[in-house]
Amino acid sequence: MTKDQKSQYIEDLAKDLSNANIFYLADTSGLTVETVNQLRRRCFQAGISLRVVKNTLLAKAMERVEGKEYGELAETLSGATSILFAEVGNAPAKLIKEFRKKNDKPVLKGAYIDEAVFVGDNQLDALESLKSREELIGDIIGLLQSPAKNVISGLTGGGSKIAGILKTLEERA
Fold it and tell me: 22 is in which domain, residue-wise?
């Protein structure tokens, strides 16, 4: 790669990083070409973009991004690194866990999700349990609807109880 090509690659990668609110760094070294192609296929089906990157170029791209702090992610850049860009915070974690049922890799190096930095493969379970934006909105709507439903059911249920009591009193008289 020439110096101009490297510079352009770093610029493109920095642009991708600045536009992405969610990305994972994973170690895919030791995977066969066939296995990597399977991983790429699953990523494509899940709406995740997978790129193999050079560590030094990724570190330079991270430095060029303004307004985002990647914390300890730069320290994880050793060995083979793949970057997974996604729209949903837990999608890559779920994909990695599912893929590792048959393979020992990819191993999570770190993740950046909406300004939060996660480092290490031990964070995979926590990342997998993160809820997507739509799931959180659904939970909030459910919580907001719950008191109103309780009031309505109380009013509706109370009316039938009163009618039952009045009918019983009428029959006794």
Answer: 3-130
pLDDT in tens, 70-89: 888 888 888 888 899 988 88
Query: Are 91 and 162 in the same domain?
Result: no
Report the distance separating Cα 138 and Cα 115, nearest Å. Answer: 23
Alpha helices in the chain (DSSP H): 3-19, 33-45, 55-64, 91-99, 124-128, 133-172
CA–CA distance, 129 with 64 (Å, rounded to integer): 31
By C-alpha distance, which of 105, 98, 83, 104 is closest to 17?
Answer: 83
Does one domain contain both 72 and 150? no
Instruction: Examine the domain organization and report whether 114 and 158 are in the same domain.
Output: no
Helices 3-19 + 55-64 axis angle, to 10: 60
Q: Report the number of distinct structural domains present in the chain.
A: 2
Please state, in angstroms and as integers, the Cα–Cα distance from residue 27 to each residue in 66, 74, 79, 120, following that order: 26, 14, 7, 11
- pTM exceeds 0.85: no
Distance, CA of 82 to CA of 40 (rounded, Å) = 11
Q: What is the CATH number of the domain that holds 71?
A: 3.30.70.1730
